[in-house]
Amino acid sequence: MAQINVSNLTFGYEGSFENVFENVSFSVDTDWKLGFIGRNGKGKTTFLNLLLGKYDYQGSITSSAVFDYFPYVVTGKELDQSASELMEKWKPQVEQWRVMCELPLLSIDAEILYRPFKTLSFGERTKVMLAVLFSGENDFLLIDEPTNHLDMEARDKVKQYLADKKGFILVSHDRDLLDYVCDHVLVLNRSSIEVQAGNFSSWWENKEKKDSFARAENEKHLKEIGKLKATADRSSRWAEKNENTKIGFDPIKENDRSISTRSYIGAKTKKMQSRVKNFEKRMDREIEEKEGLLNDLEEEIDLKIMPLEHYKERLVECRDLSLKYTDGTDNVIEKLTFEVKQGERVFLSGANGCGKSSLIKAILKKNEDCGESTQLPESNIISNMELNGTLSLAPNLTISYINQDTSHLRGTLSDHAKRAGLDLSLLLAILRNLDLGREQFEKNMEDFSEGQKKKVLIASSLLTPAHLYIWDEPLNYIDVFSRMQIERLIERYKPTMLIVEHDVRFREKLASKEVVL
After folding, report:
1. Which of 468, 461, 465 is closest to 496 using CA atoms?
2. What is the 3-state secondary structure (H, E, C) of 454-482?
3. Residue closest to 116 by CA, chosen among 164, 76, 80
4. What does the alpha-carbon distance between residue 21 and residue 40 come to, in Å, rounded to a whole number?
């Protein structure tokens, strides 16, 4: 058992307005299964890179542990190589027999190590890398979002695998994974860092209580400050009015007053002014106690969406639909039947490669080509896909689409708004509500993190009035707090949606229907 001690850590990127970390101190145990939680852009991956010694920093990070990082980097040239060839580069002096012992725990055969890496699915790549990662001895492992792009079956297997291990930091926004795997959490709050025993749900419960107490204390202090300010103002006016009576008086109206009364009035005024100073001191104390109360509060800013209402009740219908690519022989989708009605949130689920994204592409292409409710003939070619059966769309259907790929985002947010025909000020307002920092507004989107890019796509979709919102894995890389905001948005406005998303909590909360491919 060893510890990682962080003391007075300060780090900022060159040219950045603010430091990522400012005088941060905490300790974690290398036996813990530590969930790492925080908003996009708060510095989770940066901290992992600091542990790996990639950046210079002020302060100290001390530990006897040896660190290793997931995911391993695979270049374009290396995709033709096998994992067996690549693992020596990933983890020098790794013993292949240890990797082969880990693979059955992830329900995959050893033969996968000898296939070209480019032929492996996202799930297979993740499992192979995790097997290599855990094949060392006494390493403290830094695992950065291992379940992105994985289907439910692969997520469950990774979840069970990690639950049986220890000695790692897990960066994840998947609440189900964090609850199942972790025994401690390391949280990057808005202005502080905390380490707490328990999983995500126990930390969140404590945070809600803490936030509720902070709001109540803040309200109490505000009321007290208001009372003190009113009393101080009133006493100040009395003192000023009293002081003005010191010089000059009407001997007829004030026949009981003499020149010696001035000293009495002066003493009385001084006493009143002293009371005013006491009130001001008490106000300063109240303000000081109020300072910092709301610094870590996650404001629950509600987002808005503008769904359109279609005159047709049924917007999408598939009946006995089969789909295959024209350059392939096997059907990707076989005899699929389902429908999407107004107000429904239909979740598509199934293993990677079962045709979820292909079905979405077919719907988008058909809507783009004709936009009319027509039944497919016995055989029909859409783009590079051959469809058989019925695919019907409501006429003149407006669709807002989020692609799981973010590589097309280029240039500034202003450029993006012009290309997409969006109101820039509204786009920036939604992004601020999703906690994208203002310093990002002038940067090129190529320099954004994947989570920040996803937020651009989500904000763009929310700004697009549509009959149907089709979102393909929208929550990959999106932080927990933003996921909760989006959940509240969908619950409130109930837009018609066709969604591919593997976040268990998100689906359980919002799905009105699930279609398993």
Report:
1. 468
2. HHHHHHHHHCCCECEEEEECCCCCCCHHH
3. 80
4. 14
Give the pair of three-digit tokens for residue 345.
């949130």
Greatest CA span in the chain, whole angstroms?
A: 116
| Long-range CB contact pairs, 47-54, < 8 A, 24+ | 47/21, 48/142, 48/144, 48/169, 48/171, 50/9, 50/11, 51/4, 51/142, 52/142
CA–CA gap between residue 497 and residue 343 (Å, rounded): 8
496-511 per-residue burial string, b: 16 or more CB within 10 A, e: under 16: bbbbbbbbbbbbeebb
Contact 108, 124 (CB under 8 A): yes
pLDDT in tens, the chain (517 residues): 688 999 999 998 877 778 889 899 999 999 999 999 988 878 898 999 999 999 999 999 998 888 999 999 999 899 999 999 999 999 988 899 999 999 999 988 999 999 999 888 888 889 999 999 999 887 899 999 998 878 888 889 999 999 999 899 999 999 999 999 999 999 988 778 889 999 999 999 998 888 888 778 777 777 776 776 777 676 667 666 666 665 555 555 555 555 556 666 666 667 766 776 776 677 666 666 666 655 555 666 668 888 999 999 999 999 999 888 877 777 788 899 999 999 999 999 888 778 888 899 999 988 887 644 444 444 466 667 888 888 999 999 999 999 888 888 999 999 999 999 999 999 999 998 888 888 888 889 998 888 899 999 999 999 999 999 999 999 988 989 889 999 999 999 999 999 999 888 999 999 999 998 8
How far is Cα 155 from Cα 169, in angstroms, rounded to an integer?
17
Q: What's the number of CA atoms in the CB half-sphere (13 Å) around residue 72?
A: 23
Q: Measuring CA to CA, which residue among 23, 13, 12 is closest to residue 192?
A: 23
Give the pairing type, strands 33-38 and 184-188: parallel
Give the Cα separation of 106 and 89 in Å (integer). Answer: 22
Q: With the C-alpha atoms ordered 280, 282, 285, 287, is the resulting torsion angle positive or negative?
A: negative
The span from the CA of 277 to the CA of 254, in Å, is 31
Question: Is the Cβ–Cβ distance between 358 and 156 less than 8 Å?
Answer: no
Q: Which helix (H) or strand (E) holds 210?
A: helix 200-244
What 8-state DSSP symbol labels residue 9? E
Q: Which amino acid is at 498?
A: L
At residue 360, what are phi and psi to the nearest 5 degrees?
-60, -45
Amino acid identity, residue 414? S
The residue among 404, 503, 423, 514 whose CA lies nearest residue 462 is 423
What are the residues whose beta carbons fall under 8 Å from the beta carbon of 407, sequence distance 6 or more? none
CA 486, 487, 493, 494 dihedral sign is positive
